[in-house]
Amino acid sequence: MIERRQTIQRDLVYKAVMVLHNHPTAQEVFNHVKVAHPRIGMATVYRNLNLLVEEGRLLKIPVEGGPDRFDATVFEHCHMMCRICKRVVDIDFKPDQIALAKACNATGFRHIDPNLVVSGICPDCYEKTQDKG
To answer: Nearest-5° angle of CA 27, CA 89, CA 79?
Structure first.
């Protein structure tokens, strides 16, 4: 873990991710921090989110077709992501390390991220699709 001098901005960004607790995007973090610190810029939020990820204090969850999400829960865990709205939630599931090792051996891959992201459709989006039917 990389240690850096703690700044007010980094502390505000970290606390925003903790308070929002919904795997926020950088834009959501920016909107939250801007209330308490109106002069903060979007570039500062991005820079501090990435530094917090480098330090191991946040996880970055890449979202295909959408903005990355950030998570203050840094221990090994998995996520469920809605294919429609891109909402991300924690799920109580730990991938089988032996199965992952077998997958690496079979494919030649050298690393599999144990923080698996499973895609599906959230209840809200599913209900909207049923209403149209």
So the answer is: 110
55 within 8 A of 2, measured Cβ to Cβ: yes
**Distance (Å, rounded) from C-alpha 120 to C-alpha 133?**
19
Q: Which residues contact 117 (CB under 8 A, 6 or more apart)?
A: 61, 62, 78, 79, 80, 81, 88
Residues in the chain: 133
* Lowest mean pLDDT segment, chosen from 68-72, 91-95, 121-125: 91-95
Is the confidence at residue 64, as pLDDT, over 70?
Answer: yes
| Placement of tokens 């459709």 in the chain | 121
CB atoms within 10 A of CB 16: 25
Distance of alpha carbon 76 from alpha carbon 47, whole angstroms: 24
Question: Strand 88-91 and strand 69-71: pairing?
Answer: unpaired
